[in-house]
Amino acid sequence: MDTNELNAPGYEIPPEVQGQVAITTLDRIYNWGRRASVWPMMFGLACCAIEMICTAASRFDLARFGMEIMRPSPRQSDLMIVSGTVTKKMVPIIVRLYNQMPEPKYVLAMGACASGGGPFKEGYNVVSGIDKFIPVDVYVPGCPPTPQALLNGLMKIQEKISGEHWRTSRWYQKGGDQAEIPIPILGPDLIDPRKVEEYSRRLAESEA
Amino acid sequence: MTAPAPVETLDLAARFPDWVTADARPGYSGWIVEKDKLPDFARALRDDLGYDYLSSVTGVDYLPEGKMEVVYHAYKTTGGPGVVFKVQVARQDPVEVPSLVSIYPGAEFQEREAWDLLGIKFTGHPDLRRILMWEDFAGHPLRKDWREPYFEEEFKPFKSRWPEGKFQMAEDKARLGDNLSFPAGFDPQKKTDFDPEKALYEALRQYQKTESGLETEHLLVNIGPHHPSTHGVFRVAVVLDGETVLSLKPVMGYLHRNHEKIGERNTFLMNMPYTDRLDYLTSMSNNFGYALAVEKLMGITPPERAEYIRVMMAELTRIANHVWAIGFLLNDLGAYFTPMLYAQEERELILDIFEAVSGSRMMCNYFRFGGVARDLPDGVLEKVRDLAFERLPRKVDELEALLADNEIIRSRGIGQGVLTAEDAIRYSAAGPLLRASGIPYDVRRAEPYSIYDRLEFDVACRPNGDIYDRMMIRFDEIRQSLRIIQQTVKQMPGGPIMAVKPAYQVRVPPGEAYGRVEGPKGELGFYIVSTGKSSPWRYHVRAPSFINLTAFGPMCVGQKIADLVAILGSIDIVLGECDR
Ligand code: SF4
């Protein structure tokens, strides 16, 4: 971003210090810093991960967006790119990783599988989209999305960050960063602890 | 160039009259072995007849006949056609078949898979646990009477979608509003204390304790499924003494996408794009294997031009895969991402060609039964020529010059993670893993398919079976692939690209077929049973990534934990294929 955008208009800056001084709002500079250094989690699930790696490599060059620093640890990352098919066996781990990420955190569902189940949706071990478990900020369609499509999705994340206000943001509210998502359980099938009552009700209904 | 072994006529029924009968069902071949005699038969087959390599083990559920069948494909590592033998058991609970792990250790994971998905109990198996699903999962999903929660109809195209074109979300129709179902009588509110790891840790703790005199504590460590060096969602559980690996169990299934179950609902052609997603780095050669298997059943062969295009694409895939594998191995050795960038650059150029011919960089879906989907567009042949004659030979030399004499690579690679030739055969290792152990076995030569018998190339082979050889053999194979591509460019004939009229529905006569190709990761096989319907009755993938992992544990025990990562990198697995 150039300084013009960062500079809030309406104030006269003496010509001799233009380029060294910026007058801006806290939100602007705060979001400007955050959006230019989103650290994705180094985390690949399936085929889409290969295109994610290609995006990070030299031809498409994620470094242009300040995002090339992929962190293997959730504790150090801002963005989870769910790049591939989410299976029932894997989803407890994904939810745990999400819980371990510090706020502010973002989730990008990359590809048809992560967005809604994709070509394997009917499979018995496949979750119909990661948004059944964790909140998603941006969906990128494709199977796999091309690197260009992923870049577009990442720019959407940046747009979203630019529009946020630190005063109202979720993670600065009291208790805002403590909302943990309960870990799904691998029983005879995948049990979402938030839904057990609904399951019981539906089971009773269908037996009646 | 090794000449294919002469075909000998094999009459096992005459040799073992009390044990074996010929499989006389129309469209089938091979031998049916008495269940109780199976271990004796397998031992004789291995020791007396020389079929030392058990390539594939799988089961078929013949529900209408009330039978379960276990199908074995065995080969000689000296080349030549294989032998198919089967065991039939009545379909009651439990279905029991003697395990062959003591004779062919390479059957270990495949038998576990057949137990997991089909509920065939292999008596005498040392560690019969579920492998792809988790331990408490209800039912055996590949049985024909097992239905997934989103079940709609037995075979596609579903009537709701075609021809009426009405669509309803699967969630809205499913009983629980989600992709799940519970066994009768299960109350999700009552029981939640499941422990999916218990059986794994018990199996892991079964190892020989050695007395060193020192008081040491053994440590259980989990690597993965979220770990940057497991190449996806693969997990290894190890017990360590200090840094030395004492016991190791791979844990898979985190990417089990039910390829085979979906494949048995799909029509034959619908499976083609799904094969792209098996080993998603090598979609063209996956297409190849599947097309071969179905063509075998249909009794058609593609026209000349299509064969040349197919081979050209398959070999380009091999190069793309191998540069990727080398790059990632270097990642695992600690040379983070820089070698990878060198490798990727070349891969991108190959992907451009794939995109030009098929419309997609990765998921090519390019092969059809009887040919390929489209002819080469203008300019592609020139591009391939440029790559195969000019750029790639130069770049491969450059990459090799950068790596081969590197001090760190040599000291971490040479003599580490050794897989001996005997073990490689015993564990049914395939592809570069087998050839780096000194066994010059390559399906393209051992049982040539397509036009490989006319092309000139050598089977790359390295003697030591260590990490370094497994890296270097990939350079050798890239060079051989370049030779093949150069020949296809020079000899590319004109003419049609399809033997039959393209159609959405193909007629596949009843019977069975096993099509196998030498994929970049090893022997990729498709076992298909057709009943004459529009969908396969059984659709099984012999996945090299999966079976190569059988040797992973034995290779790592006694090594340091840091070498484990390098050994895994040198096997080169892709989880999409491993878990399917
Ligand atoms: S969306 Fe397609 S490419 Fe991506 S993980 Fe799913 S199947 Fe693979």
What distinguishing features does this structure have?
heterodimer, A: 208 residues, alpha/beta, 3-stranded parallel beta sheet, two-stranded antiparallel ribbon, 5 strands, globular, B: 580 residues, alpha+beta, 5-stranded mixed beta sheet, 3-stranded antiparallel beta sheet, 20 helices, 15% strand, binds iron/sulfur cluster
Name the pair of protein chains with the most residues at their interface, and give those residue counts. Answer: A-B, 56 and 61 residues
Proportion in helices of chain A? 25-40%
* Number of distinct beta strands of chain B: 15
Number of helices of chain A: 7
Strand content of chain A: 5-15%
Strand order of the largest sheet of chain A: 1-2-3
Ends distance of chain A: 62 Å
Rg of chain A, Å, rounded: 20 Å
Give the arrangement of secondary structure elements:
The complex is a heterodimer of chains A (208) and B (580).
Chain A (H helix, E strand, L loop, with lengths): L2 H4 L19 H10 L11 H10 L22 E5 L7 H10 L5 E5 H6 L21 E3 L6 H16 L22 E2 L3 E2 L4 H12 L1
Helix pairs in contact in A: 2-6, 3-6
Chain B lengths: L11 H4 L4 E3 L8 E3 L4 H10 L5 E10 L4 E9 L7 E8 L4 E4 L9 H11 L1 E4 L46 H4 L24 H7 L13 E6 L11 E7 L2 E8 L7 H7 L5 H6 L6 H16 L5 H29 L5 H21 L8 E2 L2 E2 L7 H24 L3 H7 L7 H6 L5 H4 L7 H4 L20 H25 L19 E9 L2 E9 L7 E5 L1 H5 L3 H5 L4 H11 L3 H5 L1
Parallel strand pairs in B: 2-5, 6-7
Antiparallel strand pairs in B: 1-2, 3-4, 4-5, 8-9, 9-10, 11-12, 13-14, 14-15
Helix pairs in contact in B: 8-9, 9-10, 9-16, 9-19, 10-11, 11-16, 16-19
Bound molecules: iron/sulfur cluster.
The site of iron/sulfur cluster has 12 residues of chain A, from α3 and α5.
